[in-house]
Amino acid sequence: MLIGKAGAAKSAIATADSTSVTVRGKDLATELMGVMTFTELFIFHLTGKEGTKDQVFFLDALLVAITEHGLTPSVQASRMTLAAEPDAMQAAVAAGILGCGSVILGASETAGRLLAEGVRRVNEGEGDTDAIARAIAEDTRAAKARLPGFGHPHLKPVDPRSVRLFALADERGVSGPHVAMVRALNKAADEVWGRQMVLNVSGAIPAIMLDLDFPVASLKGVPILARTAGLLGHLVEERERPIGFLIAHHAEEAVIYDGL
Q1: Torsion angles phi and psi, residue 27, rounded to 5
Q2: Which option is the CATH number for 107-218: 3.30.1330.30, 1.10.260.40, 3.40.109.30, 1.10.230.10?
Q3: Strand 21-23 to strand 14-16: parallel, antiparallel, or no bridges (unpaired)?
Q4: For the whole model, what pTM was predicted?
Q5: Which of 8, 107, 135, 221 is least enclosed by beta carbons within 10 angstroms?
Q6: Crossing angle of helices 201-211 and 177-193, rounded to 10°
Q7: In the chain, what are the domain boundaries?
Q8: How many CB atoms neighbour CB 118 within 10 A?
Q9: Contact residues for 241 (Cβ-Cβ < 8 A; gap 6+)
């Protein structure tokens, strides 16, 4: 039994033959290599359109912002995997990326969908930005749920990455309804939770990307792409200055066995 959409299977992204590779209608060797940067190619590959100057500028900034954050769980998983199998760098990268979820790295997509829904409600006349943001904060708090894009275990009282990204967005005139929504949500969250809520980089990334017309479906890909680059740096160092087994040892030492 055939499962899936009926009809001919088609893709508009790429094809190849014995003499060429074609990406979104352009010849890879003659029209893309040496012409587009990797960031420009990523936008073109993702959307089928050449990125605007602002899209390229901010995607570069966003990728830099999320590439590195120290010995995170994903980095530790990667380094320990490479320590166990030094020839399998691809497996070590995969080990780190598999940990991208709603708590770490994956929150950008969840936050983006929340912001997009908030902007939709404003556009449909349910209330102004401040009122909708307040309702979202109150509903989230009442449900005892996590507010995506807010909070950080180390960066307090603000996330300097978010501060810088929003400053750049204001400076270049790209801040739009999604940035306005996340800022209103930040104010509302502070009031509803009764403390200063850190607007983290996973809240800044989708707000700026959505205002630059990136598709919602692309939001999770940016942290994954950025963190892949970060993991590769750690894995090159792991081969030169190994700490994977040391990380595992300290984890074992730190956990007290209380079984019978």
Answers
A1: -75, 125
A2: 1.10.230.10
A3: antiparallel
A4: 0.90
A5: 8
A6: 150
A7: 19-51, 107-218
A8: 24
A9: none
Are the C-beta atoms of residues 228 and 73 closer than 8 Å to each other? no
Kindly report the backbone phi and psi dihedral angles of residue 39, in degrees, each rounded to the nearest multiple of 5, phi listed first: -65, -45
How does pLDDT run across 169-195, given as a tens digit for each residue? 999 999 999 999 999 999 999 999 999
Residue-wise DSSP of the chain: ---S-SS----SSEEE-SS-EEETTEEIIIIITTTS-HHHHHHHHHHSSPPPHHHHHHHHHHHHHHH--SS-HHHHHHHHHHHH-TT-HHHHHHHHHTT-BTTTBTHHHHHHHHHHHHHHHHHTTS--HHHHHHHHHHHHHHTT---TTB--SSS-S--HHHHHHHHHHHHTT---HHHHHHHHHHHHHHHHHTSPPPB-HHHHHHHHHHHTT--GGGTTHHHHHHHHHHHHHHHHHHHHS--HHHHHHHHHHHSPP---
- Token pair, residue 142, equals 């009442």
CA atoms within 13 A on the CB side of 141: 16
